[in-house]
């Protein structure tokens, strides 16, 4: 997979959802700090439907901060393995157990789904399945 394919396969929302540290979901503040960016810029980037409108430097900072550097075979492989877990039904327990599940993560997923007229086939299959179950 090349860099451009990975940008389509892992849009900002998905990179945000996969961000974790020590088995726990990373907060947006932790990501902003790791990326060396202001909190409001980090929050705005993760609601974008694609990386297209963001400067390359921002994409690089955010993906690295989330542990999903598109130039790192290790990072990409870790994400791919996680998404194939349990017969391609990852549990996302670190998100569901987070105190922000109801107030941040679930609304983020629902809004992401509502922003799409069609679910892109480039997305990982487990994510496509998850998105089909959400309200449009």
How is this structure best described in words?
The protein is an all-alpha fold and 136 residues long. The protein has one domain. Helix content is 60%, strand content 3%. It has 9 helices and 2 strands. It has a two-stranded antiparallel ribbon. The N and C termini lie far apart (30 Å).
Biggest sheet strand line-up: 1-2
Question: What amount of the residues lies in strands?
Answer: under 5%
Q: Structural class from helices and strands?
A: mainly alpha
- The overall average pLDDT, rounded, is 92
Keywords:
mainly alpha, two-stranded antiparallel sheet, 9 helices, 3% strand, 2 strands
Short description:
The protein is mostly helical. The chain has nine helices and two strands.
Question: What order do the helices and strands come in, and which of them pair?
Answer:
Elements: H1 3-9, H2 12-18, E1 20-21, E2 24-25, H3 28-35, H4 39-45, H5 56-65, H6 73-88, H7 93-96, H8 101-114, H9 125-132
Antiparallel strand pairs: 1-2
Helix pairs in contact: 3-4, 3-5
